[in-house]
Specification:
By secondary structure, this protein is an all-alpha fold. The chain contains four helices and two strands. Helix 2 packs across helix 4 and helix 3 packs antiparallel against helix 4. The model has no long low-confidence stretch (mean pLDDT 86).
Length: 151
């Protein structure tokens, strides 16, 4: 008989062995080398890009200090580009999940730069929308097409 009191010890040994293999293969195993290496490369890429953007923005700020330039915000990178340095669309997570310290100077600088850039872009969009609302339809470049008859 397969399941009897005499074979209970053997079945217990098999069950413990299979359970140990399952735990060792699936629960205790870390990330695969390819994943760890990919995250290391992404961390390096994001860190280098953040440092480069930070250096560029600071250099532009230093150059603008000597000039009489009222529009300091005009030289900011686009908010979308800055956001892409803080958020990974593929993993749908912050880039800090790759091991970049969330409290690092580069990350804090990028977050502040994103806030300023978004505020600047929102101000520009609001101003253009306000101008468009206030402008009569006839004065617009394609005002004659507004009705859709000439399309």
């Amino acid at each position: 008989e397969v399941f009897s009191q005499g074979t209970a010890a053997a079945w217990t040994t098999v069950l413990v062995g299979v359970s140990t293999l399952f735990v060792a293969n699936f629960l205790l195993k870390g990330k695969a080398f390819a994943i760890v290496e990919g995250e290391r490369r992404k961390r390096k890429k994001y860190t280098e890009l953040m440092a480069m953007v930070k250096q560029d923005v600071e250099a532009r700020k230093m150059a603008a200090e000597g000039k009489d330039n009222d529009d300091e915000l005009a030289d900011l990178p686009e908010a979308d580009r800055i956001f892409n340095l803080l958020w990974d669309d593929v993993k749908e997570a912050r880039t800090t999940t790759y091991g970049i310290a969330p409290q690092s100077d580069d990350v804090k600088f990028m977050e502040d730069l994103l806030r300023r850039s978004l505020a600047n872009e929102m101000t520009i969009a609001t101003k253009k929308t306000q101008e468009a609302v206030e402008t009569p339809m006839q004065d617009l470049e394609n005002g004659e097409y507004a009705s859709g008859e000439k399309l």
